[in-house]
TrEMBL record:
GO BP term, example: calcium ion-regulated exocytosis of neurotransmitter
One function term, GO molecular function aspect: phosphatidylserine binding
Name of the featured protein: Synaptotagmin-7
Keywords annotated in UniProt: Repeat
Ranges for domain C2: 24-144, 153-288
InterPro entries: C2_dom, C2_domain_sf, C2A_Synaptotagmin-7, C2B_Synaptotagmin-7, Synaptotagmin
Provenance organism: Papilio machaon (Old World swallowtail butterfly)
PANTHER family linked: SYNAPTOTAGMIN, SYNAPTOTAGMIN-7
Cross-referenced SUPFAM superfamilies: C2 domain (Calcium/lipid-binding domain, CaLB) (SSF49562)
Pfam families, per database record: C2
Any one cellular-component term (Gene Ontology): presynapse
Length: 293
């Protein structure tokens, strides 16, 4: 994983997500292999288990849609398995003409759907796997928990954290948000982000991004630096609030995240914060699901 360090933020970083699924929507079993001689990625989709029932019969008709992001045009699909919550596909897909360097910048997206003859197919859950995380000298096999589709949610925020112990500078970068909840009549929001540095329950310092008009997928690319001595780094937290700006009424909260040290605000230490402390001077990038309050 050393080559992942100290490089600019790319598409791959957008999909590195170590958070736990918010609800159990089953698992998917698949394997990967790379044919170095023919520069071909070989994906085998083996099976799914404990999928949720989407049909009135208490079962589902699952199939898997496969894409290699960022290319969304070329989609491949498994066969539909009828009336089962534990489908066995055992299907192999070949992605030809992919030198290993090109593959490192791709993200495998497996999206499980429930086929519906009369209406739109229901999304069951999905998995994103940045291929730079895969050791192709082996022939790895994976069981991955599916993540539920983002619906009735506040959206997600991509942030990075970096701490320099030598000069006591904590830097939070707000990169972008996706699928924010619409707060305005036009089905959009006017998002901006408000950040509080806190010690315990005491708010110390506030920062704000610019307002982005009429969008649910703003790209902020804004960094804020705070002075936090090394001995206090586990006692502080960052309260990050994505707000909807309103010309007339009060600005509304879309969703928030708390990035916290072990003793900050009585919260449990977030993995993102932990990684920042264990890897000083490195930029740690992570997606976070926004919470309503």
């Amino acid at each position: 994983m050393a080559f992942l360090q100290n490089r600019s933020i790319s598409l791959v970083d957008m999909y590195i997500d170590n958070s736990e699924p918010s609800e159990n929507v089953g698992q998917i079993h698949f394997s990967l292999e790379y044919d170095f001689q023919n520069t071909t990625l070989i994906l085998k989709i083996i099976q799914g288990k404990e999928l949720p029932a989407k049909d009135l019969s208490g079962t589902s008709d699952p199939y898997v849609r496969v894409t290699l992001l960022p290319d969304k045009k070329h989609r491949l699909e498994t066969k539909i398995k009828r009336r089962t919550l534990n489908p066995r596909w055992n299907e192999t897909f070949y992605f030809e003409g992919f030198p290993i360097q090109k593959l490192q910048s791709r993200v495998l997206h497996l999206h499980v759907f429930d086929y519906d003859r009369f209406s739109r197919d229901d999304s069951i859950g999905e998995v994103f796997l940045p291929l730079c995380q895969v050791d192709f000298s082996e022939k790895p096999s994976f069981w991955k928990a599916l993540k539920p589709p983002a619906k009735d949610k506040c959206g997600e925020l991509l942030t990075s954290l970096c701490y320099h112990p030598s000069n006591s500078v904590l830097t939070l970068t707000l990169l972008k948000a996706r699928n924010l909840k619409a707060k305005d009549i036009n089905g959009k929001s006017d998002p901006y982000v408000k950040v509080w540095l806190q010690f315990g329950d005491k708010r110390i310092e506030k920062r704000k991004t610019a307002i982005f008009k009429c969008t649910l997928n703003p790209v902020f690319n804004d960094s804020f630096s705070f002075n936090v001595p090394w001995e206090k780094i586990r006692e502080c937290s960052l309260d990050v609030q994505v707000m909807d700006f309103d010309n007339i009424g009060r600005n509304e909260l879309i969703g928030r995240i708390l990035l916290a040290g072990k003793n900050g605000s009585g919260a449990t230490e977030t993995k993102h914060w932990q990684d920042m402390i264990t890897k000083p001077r490195q930029t740690i990038v992570q997606w976070h699901r926004l919470k309503p309050e």
